[in-house]
Amino acid sequence: MNAEExxxxxxxxxxxxxxxxxxxxxxxxxxxxxxxILVYDRDGRLYVQRRSFAKECSPGRWDTSAAGHLNSGxxxxxxxxxxxxxxxxxxxxxxxxxLFKIDASPATGQEFVWxxxxxxxxxxxPDPTEIIDGRWCEASELEAWLAREPESFTGSFHxxxxxxxxxxx
Length: 169
What we know:
Blueprint: E1 6-10, E2 16-21, H1 22-27, E3 32-40, E4 46-51, E5 62-63, E6 66-69, H2 76-88, E7 97-102, E8 111-119, E9 131-137, H3 139-148, H4 155-164
Parallel strand pairs: 3-8
Antiparallel strand pairs: 1-2, 3-4, 3-6, 4-5, 4-9, 7-8
């Protein structure tokens, strides 16, 4: 994470109103943008990742396959493709499927979030500076895990999973 990253600050309608350093955006609780990618294999299993303990938000918790903030001037889809490659070493050879958008709120850390779906048979190569563990899970396995250990998952995962459960490859 670079302290000099510049984010687009957005209004309640997700329109850019200014550009500020990442630290200022987070410290002041300003609205900004992020993308989450759900990576499925051809058998319909979802890849979940465990975030590095060095992460600013939700260190050591399980999360969607890949996620990240949009850089200033970047659109959601471009950011999703970039994060997929940066975090998991996956190149999207077909367009990612846009599933839904979540409005910025305290529950999202004031992030507008677009959620995407990607299906692949390629090997996942997690970036060890971002991800300390990862695994492929059946929907039923995730449901049981969430019921047993809800605190092990990020708040974002808790917002996203109910809207995608049952979807697969």
